[in-house]
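G., the chain you wanted modeled:
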Amino acid sequence: MPRATDNFIPRFQILAEELIAEIKAGKYLEGQLFPSEKELVQRYQVSRQTIRNTLNVLAAKGLLLPKLARGHFVQAPQKSKRAPMAPPVSPGRIKQIGLVYRPLRLQNNVSFFRSSLGLKSAISQYGYSLAMSVACQDSENRLYPTFPQWIQNDLMDGYILLSAPSHVQESFVGLKVPVVCMGYPWTGLALPSVEFDFQAVYRKAVHYLVEKQCLPICNIVNGDNTIEDSAFSREVLSGYRKGIADLCLSPAQAGVAKFKKNTAQELVRCLARVIKKKPLPRAIILDSDIHLEPIMEFLTAKGIRVPQDLVILVILFNNGLSPYTGQIAFFDFDPFFNARRAGEKLLEIMHSGTPGELHERYADGRFVSPA
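Predicted structure as tokens:
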């Protein structure tokens, strides 16, 4: 086993190699409950985050199956999970996978870059490169998609759709090359996917806030303006309501507020209505940090201190350089492993012709409290 100082190998990767060897040697039986985080922390004398990263690696390799509130269960090593060497391609053809993504705030967007790194780690070992194209035309920002030309000229060996809008997903139905959605398949299309399980995370979020004695709670949700908004709202509210039912909370203890347009102005207006309620909510849940700066400025102007007076829980916290990192709570989720799994799933389809489980859903991570 390599030492931690050799080429600066992270501790969790070293532990992952050791545990993978134990599973393959038969120390743990298929279907057996794997040791808990607490047990592994005590055994190896490392942080809980190191153990979580280790378990994420084992889950991504198909050796552990995480189950909500129950732990991780051992799966038998399956050689078929790993894609075989790619078939030969035509002379002069470049082996490429196309990544089609919704325009994002790419500057400081840790989530996007971790996702692209995860994809590259899966496909590069088989000689594929990653080409990128935005998922829509935006004349104001001069973003013009190139993926229609990819499709027309048959330039890619496969596609990954990263949170692509519904009309973009529809354009990939029926292609001869395989397609995997990373993110929710909004229209219910039978496209294989590796998804972030918002329902499970919002359910966990209610438990987390109650444990932190942050009642009442208000979940601020985008309105049903588009197909994507509507599907996302259903997913979020389903998980949120399950968390409420788990803990038998009343409507006064856990409410919902909706805003119509996904703009900073509309979100601030919605928040203004929320803070007028008596008593003042002890916590609000936001789906992402995209409008966090104007929200924090608004609360400061109103004399509301975060987190002393109001806890803000952000589910998707993408900006690792945000000045508010120590003030807010957030779900610490590394998209690297989901993205790598999406790349592996695409390769499996390319070589076997079948997607296995059509929709794979993951919600590995932990809630981080304000400093």
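The radius of gyration is 22 Å.

Shout if anything looks off.
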